[in-house]
User: Fold this.
Amino acid sequence: MSVRYLRTPLVALAAAALAGACGPASTSTGLSPVPAPAPPPAAPPVYVPLTPGLPPIPAVEGTLAIRLVAPEPGQSLPRRDSTFLYGSVGTGGAALTVDGTPVPVAPNGAFIAYLPVPADGVWRLEAAKGAERASTTYTYRPRAAAQPSRADTATEAGTGADTAAARPAPAAAPAASSARKAVASAPAEPAPAASSNVELKKGMTEAEVVRALGQPRRKIGLGERTVWSYDGFSVTFSGGKVSELN
Assistant:
């Protein structure tokens, strides 16, 4: 009789022990999780001189500061899909990005890049060296809308050639008065302009380019090369002759 009463608590204890063994194991260790180390920053691209064989560029150590030479202030949005940017970050050994694209920096802090024109017309430059950071933006001036010609305006307004022909002619003025008016209203002779129908091509001299385009907005010396900056494009000379058209 006593054996039967003792068997019931023993079964209950065995069931409790089995349930505890089958339950989920405790994962609490009392220690905070250690975050993974951040990946090291990517090394900036190596600057490669435009013209090989020249003496090495001397290194410059200075304050990190972005100075944009081209495009110039107030320049209108280029009509080409890509254009040049060049300037300086003030010191060598810096990393530079333009709209997120890494741009090589020379040992003296100079940089030059040929990149697609941003859709919103804004360049965003960010430079870093050690703990120093610098950033700047450049916004192009919107291109002026093309103005309709007087002939198109007259046609749209319904005052074309037929209407002009039906309009009565003004009364003739005295000969002397007409001559004075003609002299007074004669437009001044325009200044000679650069020829617009001369096609640029490689091998042209600087004088030929000036005759075709006029004087450039800026001239930049890059070793044996010289870059002439015009509105929306540039011309590169090597040995006094055109070597690149951008």
Remarks:
- The first helix runs from residue 2 to 22.
- Helices lie at 2-22, 150-156, 161-166, 175-185, 206-213.
